[in-house]
Amino acid sequence: MIAILAAAAQGIGAHAPLQWLDLGLTRGIDLGFFTLRWYSLAYLAGIVLAYWHVSKTLKLAGAPMAQRHADDLFFYCTLGVILGGRLGYATFYAPQLWADPAEMAKLWQGGMSFHGGLIGCTLAMAWVAARGGLNFLRVCDWVAVAVPFGLFFGRLANFVNGELWGRVATAQVPWAMVFPDGGPLPRHPSQLYEAGLEGLVLLVVLMVLFWKTRARFRPGLLTGVFVAGYGCARFTVEYFREPDAQLQDFALRTGLSMGQWLTVPMILLGAALVARALVRPALGEGSRGAVEAVAP
Predict the structure, then answer these.
(1) Where, by residue number, does a 1,2-diacyl-sn-glycero-3-phospho-(1'-sn-glycerol) bind (predicted)?
(2) Domain of 250?
(3) Which pLDDT tens digit goes with each residue over 210-230?
């Protein structure tokens, strides 16, 4: 796949758009009695890597929780992401699902909202923090750093599934691609744009801030960077992503897609969290305020 994209970038075959079908991708692993969807594996990979990273950071001075809290956190966050993602999709993108509970339950047919999943995950973190007497904002900071793992794999799964493709591209976009369900015209592979911006770029920024600076001792800073960073990345990529068929009229009427409208409050909230964190004094490493939540 990389070789094909590189060749396109150099102008080779510029008059013949890339074909998603030529990549030889499948939408899952056929086990005979069951097809294991890449979507499921993407969720699993994101959760496992996030759990690994958070567990690793709990060994640092000033961690806001103990390992037992992290174990509870990822159990409830997994439920929050799945339930919130599905309910968010029904609320923001497919309201008709509310009238058909049986269809709502068919997660294997696709249809998950990041914003709904984020709300579900946030509620799960609030529950664990309240029950364990933890600092909610610092728990969010520790988790936010690892969220881009899941975003990266999730967007790659969208590409492998040949879904959520981009808008029709001009001839000046040599990496434009024809998706089998997207019609005969070449389109932006916006799933890869999102994997790069929401996943890799945001992951690098947050990892550098966490490991190379004292950002983790400013409650809310990492959370704010994640929320605002994701909002800006998603808002930008939406200009290249085809709106959901049932929401194209909405995008035409309002001038922005549903995804862009949903990111506006995220950008504002993230900016507010960053500003708040920077104007307040940082926690001292090893101070009571930084380590109080670590005690068993």
Answers:
(1) 155
(2) 34-280
(3) 999 999 999 999 999 999 999
